Amino acid sequence: MSGFAFGILSEISLVRGTTSFVLFTIFLSVLGYITSAVEYLEDYYYCAYRIIKKLYEELMVIGIINFTIVMLKASGFLDDLEHWIVAVEFTDILFFITALFLIIHAGFLIL
Predict the structure, then answer these.
(1) How far separated are the first and last CA of the chain, in Å rounded?
(2) What is the pLDDT of residues 38-70, one digit of tens each?
(3) What ranges do the domains of the chain cover?
(4) Contact status, residue 11 vs residue 73, Cβ threshold 8 Å
(5) How many whole angstroms separate alpha carbon 93 and alpha carbon 111?
(6) Are 4 and 10 in contact (CB under 8 A)?
């Protein structure tokens, strides 16, 4: 097989890959509109704005950690460190659940 092959990419059909790309682009566009709409909360509901901003920051941190782990796994750099990957992902999820609980709790306190 000639050309570029990155893991399972060579096994994905053109239609499925294109559909996935289009749906992901639509999702990112809608997410962009939602996050820009959140900026309007700053003037009217400042506490809710701060809570949503903290949640957004937590999701960004989780995304960066997961993206880094996926890229390191795909490169083969972490083949012999699988037990560390599981520990890092568990800790990441634990922090996210804790932060989400605190954000929900703060949301109920605001109401």
Answers:
(1) 60
(2) 788 788 888 778 877 887 887 788 788 878 877
(3) 12-40, 45-111
(4) no
(5) 27
(6) no
